[in-house]
């Protein structure tokens, strides 16, 4: 047999022996007086002498992450997933039955411990065990080390193992939880109403993306998993909810990368009687406060960079950013007008060795140039604003430039983390944009926006001047935890099935 097979057999044999001791193999409960984290927090600063005088007793529980024996002295290391503590086990300190149980324990088992706290000669806070309770057997050996691609795959596929042996993994998701809490606190303090909108929709709208399709049997109805809640939230603004938000799960049938997962989380919010510039200031304040709330500082390390979420953030127009980057690359000044004519912008892309999708519009080519030339260079938070109209079907045009909409995207650490705009509220113009998108779809663009007659009907009742924004929570957590793959910040990311 292989070593792993031997271990499996030995663990199952040990469990049988535990049962022969008269112990329940899977007891219904175990009452703790303290968690391991509480013990360490409360007594970490107490000296050995102080502990000897007080002799504090505790009953706690955790998973065994280490077993060591030195003659009569035996040591366990227990973890509650956040903090670890050492347990001292002596034969003469336990009942014969408990010591027999100790000899049957394996790395990874869950146990309860009763005993008193003291410090060893090496000054380590330790529980001197007087009782051991068996709580559950770890039948599969735990991984001892994490290295290489295969172990990264295991971390994502079996997140429970990652959380057992890697305390840093838990820290990431604790930060994520505080980010969500901080966002809600920020929105609620400004009288935004949190709502829930449909996740199954007749029309996949609110973004340019391919949806997942499903079918409702009872209604014999094809439905789509939402790609964004935008059109429903703006219906609510029409209905008089002037400040509204949703922390939402979205689903997009697209590729998987270090920045993309088909299922992801966003904060999306809308504010009546505002425009996109109002949201720039609000976003600066929000991210600064949320970073402070979730990490203790609005300055974080991301790779080799130190990123500051302290306002104000840099601001640059999209076409200006492309012109500047292209001018540096070519050693020749590129003017704004070059980016407004298809022939000239195609020629520019060719000179820059940037591939242009077949049939791409001027706006899509400009966006492709920006993504290739500029995106990775935007390390400190930067608002990139004023996008081509043809790639922004739900945004309001600038009064002085119909080819440009009042839209911004926020970048930090080379990642796009937010998208916002002044909302298009002219139903006639919105219909014209939807018609243009329908033509794009007929020509093969699977991400083009669908026609939504009910949304147009809602606009005809009157949408006030409104600004809206979507903030990518997964990418924000990546930045705040120095994580360089979106899979590191999603507990159970979608993975390609593995052949067993």
Automatic annotation (TrEMBL):
<dbReference type="InterPro" id="IPR004364">
    <property type="entry name" value="Aa-tRNA-synt_II"/>
</dbReference>
<dbReference type="GO" id="GO:0000049">
    <property type="term" value="F:tRNA binding"/>
</dbReference>
<dbReference type="Pfam" id="PF01336">
    <property type="entry name" value="tRNA_anti-codon"/>
</dbReference>
<dbReference type="InterPro" id="IPR006195">
    <property type="entry name" value="aa-tRNA-synth_II"/>
</dbReference>
<dbReference type="GO" id="GO:0046872">
    <property type="term" value="F:metal ion binding"/>
</dbReference>
<dbReference type="InterPro" id="IPR045864">
    <property type="entry name" value="aa-tRNA-synth_II/BPL/LPL"/>
</dbReference>
<dbReference type="InterPro" id="IPR018149">
    <property type="entry name" value="Lys-tRNA-synth_II_C"/>
</dbReference>
<dbReference type="Pfam" id="PF00152">
    <property type="entry name" value="tRNA-synt_2"/>
</dbReference>
<protein>
    <recommendedName>
        <fullName>lysine--tRNA ligase</fullName>
        <ecNumber>6.1.1.6</ecNumber>
    </recommendedName>
</protein>
<feature type="domain" description="Aminoacyl-transfer RNA synthetases class-II family profile">
    <location>
        <begin position="173"/>
        <end position="497"/>
    </location>
</feature>
<keyword id="KW-0547">Nucleotide-binding</keyword>
<dbReference type="GO" id="GO:0004824">
    <property type="term" value="F:lysine-tRNA ligase activity"/>
</dbReference>
<dbReference type="GO" id="GO:0006430">
    <property type="term" value="P:lysyl-tRNA aminoacylation"/>
</dbReference>
<dbReference type="InterPro" id="IPR012340">
    <property type="entry name" value="NA-bd_OB-fold"/>
</dbReference>
<keyword id="KW-0436">Ligase</keyword>
<comment type="similarity">
    <text>Belongs to the class-II aminoacyl-tRNA synthetase family.</text>
</comment>
<keyword id="KW-0067">ATP-binding</keyword>
<keyword id="KW-0963">Cytoplasm</keyword>
<keyword id="KW-0648">Protein biosynthesis</keyword>
<dbReference type="GO" id="GO:0005829">
    <property type="term" value="C:cytosol"/>
</dbReference>
<keyword id="KW-0030">Aminoacyl-tRNA synthetase</keyword>
<keyword id="KW-0479">Metal-binding</keyword>
<dbReference type="InterPro" id="IPR002313">
    <property type="entry name" value="Lys-tRNA-ligase_II"/>
</dbReference>
<dbReference type="InterPro" id="IPR044136">
    <property type="entry name" value="Lys-tRNA-ligase_II_N"/>
</dbReference>
<dbReference type="InterPro" id="IPR004365">
    <property type="entry name" value="NA-bd_OB_tRNA"/>
</dbReference>
<dbReference type="GO" id="GO:0005524">
    <property type="term" value="F:ATP binding"/>
</dbReference>
């Amino acid at each position: 047999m292989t070593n792993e097979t031997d271990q499996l057999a030995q663990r199952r044999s040990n469990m049988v022996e535990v049962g022969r001791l008269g112990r329940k193999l899977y007891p219904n409960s175990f009452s703790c007086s303290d968690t391991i984290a509480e013990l360490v927090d409360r007594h970490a600063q107490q000296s050995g002498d102080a502990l000897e005088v007080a002799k504090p007793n505790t009953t706690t529980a955790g998973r065994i992450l280490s077993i060591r024996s030195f003659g009569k002295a035996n040591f366990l290391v227990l973890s509650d997933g956040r903090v670890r503590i050492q347990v001292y086990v002596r034969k003469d300190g336990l009942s014969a039955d408990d010591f027999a149980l100790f000899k049957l324990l394996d790395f990874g088992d869950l146990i309860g411990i009763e005993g008193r706290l003291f410090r060893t000669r090496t000054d380590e806070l330790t529980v001197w065990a007087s009782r051991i309770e068996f709580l559950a057997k770890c039948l599969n050996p735990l991984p001892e080390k994490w290295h290489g691609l295969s172990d990264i795959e295991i971390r994502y596929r079996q997140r429970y193992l990652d959380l057992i042996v890697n305390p840093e993994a838990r820290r990431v998701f604790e930060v994520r939880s505080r980010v969500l809490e901080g966002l809600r606190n920020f929105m609620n303090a400004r009288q935004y109403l949190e709502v829930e909108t449909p996740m199954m929709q007749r029309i996949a709208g609110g973004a340019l993306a391919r949806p997942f399709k499903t079918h409702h049997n009872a209604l014999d109805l094809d439905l789509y998993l939402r790609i964004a809640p935008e059109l429903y939230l703006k219906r609510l603004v029409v209905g008089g909810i002037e400040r509204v938000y949703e922390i939402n799960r979205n689903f997009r049938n697209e590729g998987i990368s270090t920045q993309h997962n088909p299922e992801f989380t966003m904060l999306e919010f809308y504010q009546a009687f505002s425009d996109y510039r109002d949201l720039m200031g609000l976003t600066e304040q929000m991210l600064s406060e949320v970073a402070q709330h979730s990490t203790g500082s609005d300055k974080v390390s991301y790779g080799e960079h130190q990123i500051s979420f302290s306002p104000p953030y840099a601001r640059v127009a999209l076409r200006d950013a492309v012109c500047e980057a292209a001018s540096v690359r070519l050693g020749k000044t590129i003017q704004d007008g070059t980016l407004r004519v298809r022939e000239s912008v195609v020629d520019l892309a060719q000179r820059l060795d940037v591939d242009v999708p077949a049939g791409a519009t001027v706006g899509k080519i400009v966006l492709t140039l920006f993504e290739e030339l500029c995106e990775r260079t935007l390390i400190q938070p930067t608002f990139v604003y004023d996008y081509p109209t043809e790639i922004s079907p739900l945004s309001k045009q600038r009064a002085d430039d119909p080819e440009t909409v009042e839209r911004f995207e926020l970048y930090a650490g080379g990642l796009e983390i937010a998208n916002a705009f002044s909302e298009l509220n002219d139903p006639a113009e919105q219909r014209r944009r939807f018609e243009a998108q329908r033509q794009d779809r007929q020509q093969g663009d699977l991400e083009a926006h669908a026609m939504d007659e009910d949304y147009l009907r809602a606009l005809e009742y009157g949408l006030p001047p409104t600004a809206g924004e979507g903030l990518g929570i997964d990418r924000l957590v990546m930045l705040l935890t120095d994580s360089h793959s979106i899979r590191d910040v999603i507990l159970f990311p979608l993975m390609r099935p593995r052949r067993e």
